[in-house]
Design brief:
The structure is a single chain. The chain has 259 residues and is an alpha/beta fold. The chain is built from nine helices and nine strands. Strands 3-2-1-4-5-6-9 form a seven-stranded parallel beta sheet, sandwiched between helices.
């Protein structure tokens, strides 16, 4: 029985696309999918940063392809999918991970700050997800789109208003897409990470301010990237074949806390 359950979480032979894969969670997600058997296309603006990841996946016995992608550029998104189709095929799994933030008090945010964050986190996610869905529907294939949102889609924090607003929009986008794509066999879900230790935030999370933040999390711990693996594979694989339009928080109970 266990082998059958494990097989449901496998992605052998499937083609997955991970955006924002040059560092952080995107890089980790690509490795997780490759270990689950997927062929992985990794995309980001900094293609040179993807080459080491491609080599690492190859060393694991997997297959990977690096693609240049600026998610805010509609023509560039289409070109990325065209090249993917020519070199590997139609992506059956999309991990829509590219994102950015600007941290400053609300009244100090500029229009340029807003555009930079919302264009990447919401418009860019929309461009990539709809293009992925269009290719799946046109090819008659089923598939899974996993939008990487945040617990800040459902709670507030100071200094990151455009980020939180964009992630809330991403959750609503997820549900709207799930509704219309269900009849095509395309599932759309959102993964909501809490505070996850990465190279970008490790110094802060280990600081005195980080200790105060950790004290507000009921589990009293920050997540590690590996804590997201089970949720990611559930949403990407046949194990989650009946799940669509869902939001799945991985946050040590932070969302249910009043702190």
């Amino acid at each position: 029985m266990s082998s059958g359950i494990e097989a449901m979480f496998r992605l052998d032979g499937r083609l997955a696309l991970v955006t924002g894969a040059s560092s952080g969670l995107g890089r980790h997600f690509a490795l997780t999918l490759a270990r689950a058997g997927a062929r992985v296309a990794v995309a980001a603006r900094r293609v040179e940063a993807l080459q080491a990841l491609v080599q690492e996946i190859g060393a694991l016995g997997g297959q990977a392809l690096a693609l240049p992608l600026d998610v805010t550029d509609a023509a560039g998104v289409r070109a990325c999918f065209d090249r993917l189709a020519a070199e590997a095929g139609v992506a059956e799994v999309l991990v829509n991970n590219a994102g950015t933030t600007v941290t400053k008090p609300l009244l100090h945010h500029t229009e340029a700050d807003w555009d930079a964050v919302v264009d990447t986190n919401l418009k860019g996610a929309w461009l990539v997800a709809t293009e992925a869905a269009r290719r799946l529907v046109d090819s008659g294939r089923s598939g899974s789109i996993v939008n990487i949102a945040s617990i800040l889609a459902e709670r507030q924090a100071g200094g990151v208003a455009p980020y939180a607003i964009s992630k809330a929009g991403l959750v609503q986008m997820t549900k709207s897409m799930a509704l219309e794509l269900a009849r095509h066999g395309v599932r759309v879900n959102a993964l909501l990470p809490g505070y996850v230790v990465t190279d970008l935030n490790r110094e802060f999370l280990q600081s005195e301010a980080g200790d105060k933040l950790r004290a507000r999390i009921p589990s009293r711990r920050f997540s590690e990237a590996e804590d997201l693996d089970g949720a990611l594979l559930l949403l990407a694989s046949d194990a989650g074949r009946a799940i669509s339009g869902a939001t799945l928080a991985v946050d040590g109970a932070h969302l249910v806390s009043s702190l």
